[in-house]
Specification:
The complex is a heterodimer of chains A (254) and B (291). Chain A has 254 residues and is of the alpha/beta class. Chain A has a single domain (2-251), classed as P-loop containing nucleotide triphosphate hydrolases (Rossmann fold, 3-Layer(aba) Sandwich), CATH 3.40.50. Chain A has helices at 45-53, 77-80, 91-94, 101-109, 123-134, 153-164, 183-199, 211-216, 235-240, 243-251, and strands at 2-11, 19-29, 34-39, 64-67, 70-71, 84-87, 171-175, 204-207, 220-225, 228-234. In chain A, the strands form 2 sheets. Chain A has a 6-stranded mixed beta sheet. Chain A has a 4-stranded antiparallel beta sheet with strand order 2-1-4-5, covered by helices on one side. Chain B has 291 residues and is mostly helical. In chain B, strands 1-2 form a two-stranded antiparallel sheet. In chain B, helix 2 runs parallel beside helix 4 (85-104). The longest helix of chain B is centred in the middle third of the chain and has 27 residues, at 176-202. The chains are: A alpha/beta (254), B mainly alpha (291). The A-B interface holds A 53, 55, 76-79, 81-82, 85-86, 88, 92-99, 103-104, 106-108, 110-112, 114-121, 147, 163-164 and B 149-150, 152-155, 157-158, 160-161, 164-165, 167-176, 234.
Chain lengths: 254, 291
């Protein structure tokens, strides 16, 4: 469903700080795969997510990104966002703090279509949002008009997840969605993410530093090292993998 | 009495500029000071159109479009060339000084008695000052309603989201560059409407009429914000009304000060002090509470 071909990203090209974040990386993602992306700091995990989403441009030349056969390599961020949804590491990035919950969801509902000059936050829409949020069991369904900024980090991440998947995305990118949260909220958000991906049968890529995450869910694990894929396991091999195996990857990356 | 009525009219007309500043600074999170230039530009263009024989509504529309255009140029410089928004605004404002001089052909352009104007075309009251007040009030109410409705529409939500979290806006498929360009165009459009009305009230356009006007707008926004913090009013409608209130208070204090016979040369210093007082109110309030 997604093909990454010979993807390279170089920062500060031609200077002393030149840094190759992704190095001729090729990857084929199948529909319905739930991929965990591992790697040490600076291995290229975030760059990979950014280059798929369009925040970072791939080097000119051989690099190519295809989604269902459509060339995405040179499309701008907001065009890609119509099909690719994203949840950020920082709760503050994923939600507009001074808009109410309903208003935030209104934007999520219009992700693929664009926005006109009409007031769309009517009662029918509110009722739908109320039902969707009630699933969280956090009591947020009674606070639809409170500004998003007044909620805790965990609540905002949970809302961000619901917003990103309000319209079924072709691809869901999760950039360490639990890293900025306390352990309890992190657990809630991780479970929520897994259950949404499973129920909606989404294709998703989650960056994580918590190796135990990979054992609890997902269908494929990719380990990046210095901008290249060092390990890539799926299927039965993925199910058989142990925490010790994963630690070993980090100790001896290649 | 006439003195205070006309001060009130002036305050209401200025409020539209203050809403423009509120839009750029608070809603879109872009410190835009094109305002000083777009204010004078709109006044000059409207004056030239009126003198050229255009009806008032077309003249005002031309003024608004020119103001909006200058705002979008600032945003374009900021987004495409990566120039700091404040600097982009200063550049456009400086360039507009020359543009304004060439539009007017001189530094001061009075309207003749024969010129059409919104205040001569519409007669809601036989008294000149009351007529002005009623017309300006209508414009202010209309602007307020328009602005409130607009910011609640789907497009308005996209504009507001862009100002609050660009990452979020972009991930929701919003073209954030386009939002900034449209946003500053709208903000400066309101500034331009304000200038077109003020120019017709005073019956002349002047090259210096925009100097420091952005401070008046910022002052009103900050006053509104202090009151907002003081009383914990956070809804959008309240924010817009508090900007209006801030502007009224500001202009009335200025009028009272002038009437008391203070040397007009000290007015700018006095304005700065008034703004300072209002901005520091929440801090004093907090300290008193802690005691």
């Amino acid at each position: 469903m997604m093909q990454l071909k010979n993807l390279s990203v170089t920062f500060n090209r031609g200077t002393e700080q030149e840094f190759r974040a992704l190095d001729d990386l090729s990857l084929s993602v199948l529909e319905g795969e739930f991929i965990f992306l591992l790697g040490a700091n600076g291995s290229g995990k975030s760059t990979l997510l950014n280059v798929i989403a369009g925040n970072v441009r791939a080097d000119l030349g051989k690099s190519k990104i295809e989604l269902y056969g459509e060339d995405f390599t040179h499309k701008s961020l907001h065009v890609r966002a119509k099909q690719i949804a994203r949840v950020f590491q920082q709760p503050a990035d994923g939600i507009a703090a001074e808009l109410s919950i309903v208003e935030n969801f209104r934007l999520a509902a219009l992700r693929s279509t664009g926005r006109g000059l009409r007031i769309g936050t009517d009662n029918a829409f509110r009722n739908e949002i109320r039902d969707r949020i009630a699933v969280l069991g956090m009591g947020l369904e009674d606070k639809l008009d409170r500004t998003a900024g007044s909620f805790s980090g965990g609540q905002r991440q949970a809302l961000s997840l619901l917003m990103a998947t309000y319209l079924k995305p072709k691809l869901l990118l999760l950039d360490e969605p639990t890293a900025a949260l306390d352990p309890k909220s992190a657990e809630t958000v991780f479970r929520l993410a897994c259950s949404i991906v499973e129920h909606q049968k989404l294709t998703a890529i989650m960056v994580t530093h918590d190796l135990r995450h990979c054992l609890r869910a997902g269908s494929r694990i990719i380990h990046l090292h210095e901008g290249r894929i060092a390990h890539d396991v799926a299927g039965l091999k993925k199910q058989e993998i142990s925490l010790a195996n994963l630690y070993a990857w980090f100790d001896a990356p290649t | 009495m006439d003195f205070y009525i006309s001060a009130l009219s002036l305050a209401l007309a200025t409020t539209m500029m203050a809403w423009g500043v509120f839009l750029s600074v608070r809603i879109f999170n872009l410190p835009d000071i094109t305002t000083d230039g777009s204010y004078t530009l709109s006044a000059s263009v409207t004056a030239v159109c009126l003198i050229g024989g255009l009806p008032w509504y077309l003249s005002v529309l031309c003024g608004i479009l020119c103001g909006a255009l200058s705002g979008s140029i600032t945003a374009l410089i900021h987004t495409t060339l990566g120039v700091n928004a404040l600097l982009a605004g200063i550049l456009v404002m400086t360039a507009l000084y020359s543009v304004n001089l060439s539009v007017m052909g001189r530094s001061n352009l009075p309207l003749s008695e024969q010129c059409d104007s919104v205040f001569s075309a519409l007669q809601l009251s036989s008294d000149r000052y009351r007529n002005e007040l009623m017309i300006v009030a209508l414009f202010a109410i209309f602007s307020l309603a328009l602005l409130y409705w607009f910011l609640k529409t789907d497009f308005g939500l996209a504009l507001r989201a862009t100002g609050q979290s660009e990452a979020m806006a972009a991930s929701m498929g919003i073209n954030t560059q386009l939002m900034k360009i449209t946003g500053l165009a709208i903000a400066n459009g309101f500034t331009a409407l304000s200038a077109a009305l003020v120019m017709q009230m005073q019956q002349f356009a002047d090259i210096n009429m925009g100097i420091g006007i952005v401070i008046l707008g910022l002052g009103s926004v900050m006053m509104g914000e202090s009151l907002q913090k003081l009383f914990g009013l956070h809804s959008l409608s309240m924010q817009l009304l508090l900007v209006l209130f801030g502007c009224l208070v500001f202009r009335l204090i200025m009028a009272i000060t002038l009437a008391s016979g203070i040397d007009p040369n000290w007015m700018k210093l006095f304005n700065a002090l008034v703004v300072l007082l209002f901005v520091s109110l929440p801090v004093f309030h907090k300290k008193l509470k802690l005691r």
